[in-house]
């Protein structure tokens, strides 16, 4: 297996470990808490991470885990998650995260170095080498993993305030 694939696999595994740690014991209600200012919540960020793993799957010539309508709920604007019928539970999102990770690992284990350097169209409409694009998506994921840590802290602080 080439170095790019190994590094991507390790990055996805490390992020998944942190995500599961941040999600540990959070309820769906806690995952919907938002800071005092208009902002994202844990549930949306977790879904957004899965949505970006779906982009990576497509870049690796694999099928997205979710249909486009679900991906759109967790894309750039978190406003799509207003009704309970439209969002996934934290447990569903964690299951989807795991399923996407397994598909990504399988695709990367089978990838040759030459294939990873082939140009693909990004979701921004710009061509990039496949491996570079997936690495960028993974960097974006890592950014959001940090947000999950802060949003978990918000939920835990809220627990302490309740009688």
Number of domains: 1
**General shape:** elongated
Spans where pLDDT lies below 50 across 5 or more residues? none
- CATH level-4 homologous superfamily: dinb family like domain
The top-level CATH class is Mainly Alpha
**Helix fraction?**
55-70%
Supply Rg.
16 Å
Order of helices and strands: HHHHHHEEH
Tell me the total number of β-strands.
2
The second-level CATH architecture is Up-down Bundle
List the strand order in the largest sheet.
1-2
Percentage of β-strand residues: under 5%
Topology:
Layout: H1 3-23, H2 28-31, H3 42-59, H4 68-73, H5 90-110, H6 113-117, E1 119-121, E2 127-129, H7 130-161
Antiparallel strand pairs: 1-2
Describe the structure.
This protein has a two-stranded antiparallel ribbon. A hairpin with a 5-residue loop joins strand 1 (119-121) and strand 2 (127-129). 66% of the residues lie in helices and 4% in strands. 33% of the residues are buried. It has a single domain, classed as dinb family like domain (Four Helix Bundle (Hemerythrin (Met), subunit A)), CATH 1.20.120.450. By secondary structure, the chain is mainly α. The termini are far apart. The chain is built from 7 helices and 2 strands.
């Amino acid at each position: 297996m080439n170095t790019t694939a190994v590094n991507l696999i390790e990055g996805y595994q490390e992020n998944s470990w942190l995500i599961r740690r941040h999600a540990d014991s959070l309820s769906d209600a806690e995952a919907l808490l938002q800071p005092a200012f208009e902002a994202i919540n844990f549930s949306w960020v977790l879904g957004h991470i899965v949505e970006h793993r779906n982009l990576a799957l497509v870049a690796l010539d694999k099928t997205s885990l979710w249909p486009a309508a679900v991906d759109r709920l967790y894309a750039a604007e978190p406003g799509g998650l207003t009704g309970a019928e439209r969002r996934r539970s934290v447990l569903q999102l964690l299951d989807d995260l795991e399923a996407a990770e397994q598909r990504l690992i399988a695709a990367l284990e089978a990838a040759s170095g030459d294939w990873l350097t082939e140009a693909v169209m990004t979701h921004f409409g710009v061509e990039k080498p496949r491996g570079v694009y997936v690495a960028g998506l993974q960097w974006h994921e890592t950014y959001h993993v940090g947000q999950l840590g802060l949003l978990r802290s918000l939920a835990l602080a809220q627990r302490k305030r309740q009688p």
